[in-house]
Amino acid sequence: MEAATERIDKFGIQNLTIKNLAADIGLSEPALYRHFSGKNEILLNLLCYFQSEMAARLSAVSSQPTDSVGERLKAMFCSQLQAFTQKPSIVSVIFAESIFRFDHVLSQKVAEIIQMMTTYVNQSVRAGQASGEFTSDIPATAISTIIMGSLQLTIMKWKRTGSQTDLVYDGNQILCEILKMIRKP
Predict the structure, then answer these.
(1) CB atoms < 10 A from the CB of 155, how many?
(2) Which residues of the chain have pLDDT under 50?
(3) 3-state secondary structure of 65
(4) Which of 104, 149, 153, 154 is most buried by a 10 A CB count?
(5) Measuring CA to CA, which residue among 88, 81, 82 is closest to residue 5?
């Protein structure tokens, strides 16, 4: 999995093949085929690993006591963005929707990961609205979409620049501005 992640990060998801991966780790292609049926199974395992790691991180962050729901959202996104910073190739895998459109299993796994994050954000926004911290003038689902879309764009810009910017800082700045817009006066 680590070798596949490194290959994706260095050469792109299109360059992940059983032949290349076998060469990277010093195995024969048949030996690697004994463990994985092909590239898509490797990608699925990467996504499953990231999903379980993400679930554990988000659960831990959301159970921490905070002064506000906004602070909880910032902690969740900081955790997520740090994970992307540590493994930038996972961004290539998660946001490779066009590559996966003909593979239902991979598409479904990516959808599950995005839905998990959306659920955490939506629950937080609803909690903020219930406590009076956030405005109720905008539906929670719309606010969640704005947050998720803005941060997705920030992540994609970071990835397109070769990870040259500070993703955690940039993402935090965007989220802080959104929180200003949705906080009750």
Answers:
(1) 20
(2) none
(3) coil
(4) 154
(5) 88
Note the Cα 145 to chain centre separation in Å: 15
Q: Return the HEC string of 147-175.
A: HHHHHHHHHHHHHHCCCCCCHHHHHHHHH
Find how far residue 131's CA is from the centre of its chain.
28
134 φ/ψ angles, rounded to the nearest 5 degrees: -110, 155
Residue 105 has a CB neighbour count (10 Å cut-off) of: 13
Q: Report pLDDT for 98.
A: 62
> Among candidates 85, 106, 102, which has minimal Cα distance to 159?
85
Region of residue 6 (left: phi > 0; alpha: psi -120 to 50; beta: else): alpha
Q: How far is CA 76 from the centre of its chain?
A: 11
